[in-house]
Design brief:
By secondary structure, the protein is α/β, with parallel strands linked by helices. The chain contains eleven helices and twelve strands.
């Protein structure tokens, strides 16, 4: 059951998403504005768990259905589903679709979580991982919220930072570096052990799960869709190990399964899906495990969406995504924000 306060909060969320998506996802910006002005979409999203009550949950659910039924009238506005997509206002078609497919959409937003497997975030992460490797040697990585395990393959992608290219491989990730210049690594870091942890790991052989992963990619962004598909092909060959488990309760066991190498926990736009108290407990679990051996946590998270993570004052509350490195060693804790950037890793402002 949803109340008027839930609906108004969802409408605010949809209105706020207009600015977020306008530059690179104009279809979603238009849909967000149109659906924020009526109940057809907002009343569906209001059924999602509180941590998933965000615009991308609703739009992923809609696209999930359209990918299976591209003859739906609303699909005519989607650049990935129509040869010549319509450019007029899709709001009425979206409202009609939401009304007619309401039960299906409610079931999806109640049961599905937006997948965080945006591999573009590997570009900022690789800079931090390289710095950790230079200091502590080869790495053993635990990726929390690993989804299909694609971020576990960061040392197999090619990176382009301006004129500098690092590594090779079938997937290239481009990131514009702004702000203070830094010495870029000459190679990708060595990851000698890797495990993923996810509440609901993606099975690479399950067509339904792969459709959900693709549904989480914004339809205007062909580059994201193409590199995701290339990364999935790589993952099918390399078979990264992703355990099913809770980000807090199963964290110590997963860390214990890592082999040689300095243990590094990575998170990227996943902790915002935990309830506030669980975010606190996540950091406590890291610190407790680090009482036994050195540990580094490399995160690419939103301070505004995760205020419980005790962000340094310079970035606390920031709407940008912060690249942060926290290391527990010799009984002490070192905490540094490397920079802030685009949530999908297109650019990073250093310093």
């Amino acid at each position: 059951m949803t109340g008027s306060s839930d609906l108004e909060a969802v409408r605010r969320e949809l209105r706020g998403f207009v600015q977020v998506s306008a530059a690179r996802a104009p279809l979603y910006a238009t849909l967000a504005l149109g659906l924020s002005q009526s109940d057809e979409g907002s009343s569906i999203l209001a059924h999602a768990p509180a941590t998933n009550r965000i615009a991308v949950t609703l739009f992923a659910a809609i696209q999930f259905l359209l990918l299976a039924e591209p003859d739906e009238p609303l699909a005519a506005w989607y650049p990935n589903l129509a040869v010549e997509p319509r450019r007029d206002d899709p709001t009425e078609a979206a409202r009609e679709f939401c009304s007619r497919r309401r039960d299906d959409l409610i079931a999806l937003v109640q049961s599905r979580t937006p997948q965080t497997n945006e591999i573009g975030r590997c570009a900022p992460l690789i800079l931090a991982l390289s710095a950790v490797e230079r200091r502590y040697g080869r790495l053993a990585q635990l990726d929390v919220g690993a989804s299909a395990g694609l971020n576990l393959l960061s040392d197999h992608y090619r990176y382009r930072f301006g004129e500098t290219v690092i590594g090779d491989g079938p997937v290239e990730l481009v990131c514009e570096l702004r702000g203070e210049p830094i010495a870029l690594p000459h190679r990708r870091p060595q990851v000698v052990s890797r495990i993923g942890l996810d509440r609901e790991p993606i099975d690479l052989d399950d067509a339904d799960q792969l459709r959900w992963l693709l549904a989480c990619v914004w339809p205007d962004q062909a580059d994201r869709r193409e590199r995701l598909q290339a990364a999935l092909e790589l993952a099918r060959r390399m078979h990264p190990v992703v355990r099913a488990g809770d980000a807090v309760d199963d964290l110590p066991v997963a860390l214990g399964e890592l082999g040689d190498g300095h243990p590094v926990v990575t998170t990227s736009w996943v902790l915002n899906y935990l309830p506030p108290q669980r975010r606190v407990e996540f950091v406590q679990a890291l610190a407790t495990w680090a009482g036994h051996r050195p540990l580094t946590w490399v995160s690419y998270e939103s301070p505004a969406a995760t205020p419980e993570l005790d962000w340094p004052g310079a970035v606390a509350g920031s709407e940008l995504t912060a690249l942060r490195v926290v290391t527990w060693v010799d009984g002490g804790r070192q905490d540094r924000v490397v920079g802030q950037g685009h949530p999908h890793g297109y650019w990073l402002n250093l310093g």
